[in-house]
Predict the 3D structure of the following.
Amino acid sequence: MMEVYFVGVAKTQIQVPDRLFAKIKKFARQHELSLAETFRRGAELLLEAYPEHEIPTSQSWQPPTSGKVGWKGLNAEELRDLAVEDQTRNPFA
């Protein structure tokens, strides 16, 4: 018999849809596992299926820019000027 020792264990609470919970509970019962062990094994399989990969952290990346800035044929400066004018316009005039 294999003995398993946990050095650090986090206790948590999760929410699972009723139908999924019923299936997991049935699976655990059929395989003579506790619900906790069933969830642990499921999490381990998930991490195994989707291994962590390094995300490049390039400092030179810049967001893309658009060559067509504007609205209704206006360039960025004209659009800004209209926005400022619109903000200062008296709506009751």
Summary: Residues 35-49 form the longest helix (15 residues). The mean pLDDT is 80. The radius of gyration is 29 Å.
